[in-house]
């Protein structure tokens, strides 16, 4: 669970609508730049976004981490209309929940 604290940035006027659109979208494409020697690539971060809500503490969102990838917190705030580079240092990871799969027992 991540939080962009209230007061860290002024939310876009249409942030509530953007939240709904993100959660209803089938795909959320972002471009990832991995540095000067590597080509940028498009990544669909929608499978990793589990929820977004505005609270008294700020904008909260829940991200899934899998063996095949995740969304970056800064990518989500960018999709919400915030200036991601300007606010990414305000993002707080508030909680991590581990869901481990049981390993098969050997005979």
Report on this structure.
- The chain has helices at residues 15-24, 73-79, 84-87; strands at residues 2-5, 29-32, 41-44, 49-55, 58-63, 92-93.
- A four-stranded antiparallel sheet has the order 4-5-1-6, with helices on one face. The chain has a two-stranded antiparallel ribbon with strand order 2-3.
- A hairpin with a 2-residue loop joins strand 4 and strand 5 (58-63).
- Helices cover 20% and strands 25% of the residues.
- The model has no long low-confidence stretch (mean pLDDT 88).
- By secondary structure, the chain is α+β, with helices and mostly antiparallel strands.
Keywords:
single chain; 107 residues; alpha+beta; four-stranded antiparallel sheet; two-stranded antiparallel sheet; 3 helices; globular
């Amino acid at each position: 669970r991540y939080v962009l604290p209230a007061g860290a940035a002024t939310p876009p006027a249409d942030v509530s609508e953007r939240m709904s659109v993100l959660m209803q979208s089938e795909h959320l494409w972002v471009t990832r730049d991995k540095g000067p020697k590597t080509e940028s690539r498009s990544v669909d971060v929608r499978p990793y976004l589990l929820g977004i809500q505005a609270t008294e503490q700020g904008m909260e969102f829940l991200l899934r981490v899998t063996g095949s990838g995740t969304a970056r917190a800064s990518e989500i705030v960018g999709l919400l209309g915030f200036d991601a580079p300007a606010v990414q240092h305000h993002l707080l990871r508030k909680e991590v929940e581990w869901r481990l799969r049981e390993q098969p027992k050997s005979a």
